Each structure stands twice: as structure tokens, then as C-alpha cells.
Amino acid sequence: MAGSGTAHLRDGEQVLRVEDLTVTFPAGRRRTVHAVSGVSFDVARGETLGIVGESGCGKSSAARAIMQLPRPSAGSVRLNGLELTGLRGEALRRTRRRLQMIFQDPISSLNPRRRVRDIVAEGPRVWGTLDGDTARIDELLEAVGLDPATAAGRRPHEFSGGQCQRISIARALALDPEVIICDEPVSALDVSVQAQILNLLEDLKARYGLTLVFIAHDLAVVKNISDRILVMYLGKTCELAPSAALVRSPAHPYTRALLSSVPQAPLRIPEEEEKHMAGEPPSPLAPPTGCRFRTRCPRATALCATEEPRMRPLTPDHYIACHHPHTETPA
């Protein structure tokens, strides 16, 4: 294992590899926000990797750094073996055609002055791949569940939030990407609409052979769409495992807390354990020494304050960064 502990894939062709990804932002005089600190993971072709954690844990910062928007402060991002962090100008622009993004707020991510057909067609027109043929745009609108005859000529404000997210998905598909990063794409939608969008993403993934990185703060949403789940806390990776294994046997105390908050989850943590985890995470301006979760962890010891836990395997495909993991399986 390299760097801070990449959980390498055993099977499948690797399409995206992120290693020791670090994102920092200046925050006034001599102050720095540590948004992402040494996060590593691989994604296989055709896989959906879920990334979950509380608001402010660095999920969206990591997503944008993968897109080089902005560039990471340190670390490596490889798409099909091609290093993205060193690319500039036209080479980077061409690579971004293969790596698209769907944003959290579907309405504000669309140009309010443009009609739907022009929004979806913008990317192919810029790259000269449309050639005046609008049949491709109609096909994409139909693929995301919109009627081209009634939707193509309207503007975003005439649609609901769920319909706007469908337009955003069609726009992301227009350049035939290999990987789509979904940055909390359902968090602003009603629960019933969330299910529709998740089902749509699953269908499109199979239809177009997509690889997805799906980001959310709700473990209940992530576990239903992901093949594997990466748990983040305060810019660090806590745990990475196949979705079923993570839900069945969460090993990190933070993962246990997230899972216990999911309705009908197979785990309820004791009241004393829950009290330890109450409150807000520390500020990313001054993260705790050692394990960043130790200030809220019921298992924290002196070792946790002085030594940062590194990612290590519990099983061949289940990784954890914790000095005192839970190893029992909940009843």
C-alpha cells in the first residue's frame, strides 16, 4: 500500500486512482483550512464508489480536486493511468471530456437564460461533435426521462428541482464521459424524487457503461447505490469497504455512528457511545493531533492523541484507519 494507504482493487480494470490527495485553502493571515488530507482510493471501470461523511468533511473539496477545480495542493489523480495534476491548457481540457460532474443544486447549476436543448448541446458544440444533429440531444433527454417535444424549448425555471437534475445529468452525458462525479445530487430533492434520480443513475450507468463517484452525507442513500463506500471525517479517510460489508460490520466508531442514524439500520449504538459523539466536529482550521476523530470517540486513548492511524486491511477488501476498531458483527 502506498502513501497514506490506498485500498487497491483486487478485481476489475482501474479507471480512476486518487493517491494522497490534499486540499488546503488560505483563511486569512497565517491560517489554513485543511479540507482534504491525504485521501487515497481506486475506482474500477463500471463501479460506483460512494463517499459519505458529515457536512464539512471534505467530500466536495475532494470531488472538485479530482476535476482539477481547483487543483489539489498535493497528491495524484490518474484517469486511465494519465496523471491529471500535471496537465495544463488544451491537454487538461480534452481530458475533462472524459470526466464530468453533476452538482448538488440542480437549478443554480443551469444557465437560466438558455433553453434546455442549448444547455445539453453546449459541450458537444464547443468540441464540434454535434454537427447540427439534434437527434443526439433528443436521445439524451429521453434517456433521462424528459419529453424532448415539450422540454427542449423551455428554460430551467419552468422545471421542478428533480427535472432540473435530469437536465444536468443529460448535460453530463452529452460528451460521452467515462467517469461522472455526483456531488450530493439528491440532497436538495424530496425523498420520493431522490429515489427516482437514484434509479435513473443506476439505469444510465448500465446503459452507457459509466463509472460513478457518488458523494452524499446520508449513508442510507449511499448504501443503496454504491458497490463500495469510503467514509470521510474532517478531511481524512476512516473506512473503506464493500457496501454490504460496511453496513453489516462497521469497524470504525464514526461509521457506526453514521449507520446508527439510518432508519431500519441493523445497528444501534449504546447511549453512552452516542453521547461521546454528540456535537459538532472540530474546525478544519485546527484539526486535532493524532486521530482526528478522537475528540468525539468513545474508544480514544492516549495513543490516539499522539499517533495518526494509517489505513490498514481488516480483510482483503475492508480497510480502516483506527487504533481500536470494532471487530464484532452486530446481531
Automatic annotation (TrEMBL):
<comment type="similarity">
    <text>Belongs to the ABC transporter superfamily.</text>
</comment>
<dbReference type="InterPro" id="IPR050319">
    <property type="entry name" value="ABC_transp_ATP-bind"/>
</dbReference>
<dbReference type="GO" id="GO:0055085">
    <property type="term" value="P:transmembrane transport"/>
</dbReference>
<dbReference type="InterPro" id="IPR017871">
    <property type="entry name" value="ABC_transporter-like_CS"/>
</dbReference>
<dbReference type="InterPro" id="IPR003439">
    <property type="entry name" value="ABC_transporter-like_ATP-bd"/>
</dbReference>
<dbReference type="InterPro" id="IPR027417">
    <property type="entry name" value="P-loop_NTPase"/>
</dbReference>
<dbReference type="GO" id="GO:0015833">
    <property type="term" value="P:peptide transport"/>
</dbReference>
<feature type="domain" description="ABC transporter">
    <location>
        <begin position="16"/>
        <end position="259"/>
    </location>
</feature>
<dbReference type="GO" id="GO:0016887">
    <property type="term" value="F:ATP hydrolysis activity"/>
</dbReference>
<keyword id="KW-0813">Transport</keyword>
<dbReference type="InterPro" id="IPR013563">
    <property type="entry name" value="Oligopep_ABC_C"/>
</dbReference>
<keyword id="KW-0547">Nucleotide-binding</keyword>
<protein>
    <submittedName>
        <fullName>Peptide/nickel transport system ATP-binding protein</fullName>
    </submittedName>
</protein>
<dbReference type="Pfam" id="PF00005">
    <property type="entry name" value="ABC_tran"/>
</dbReference>
<keyword id="KW-0067">ATP-binding</keyword>
<dbReference type="GO" id="GO:0005524">
    <property type="term" value="F:ATP binding"/>
</dbReference>
<dbReference type="InterPro" id="IPR003593">
    <property type="entry name" value="AAA+_ATPase"/>
</dbReference>
<dbReference type="Pfam" id="PF08352">
    <property type="entry name" value="oligo_HPY"/>
</dbReference>
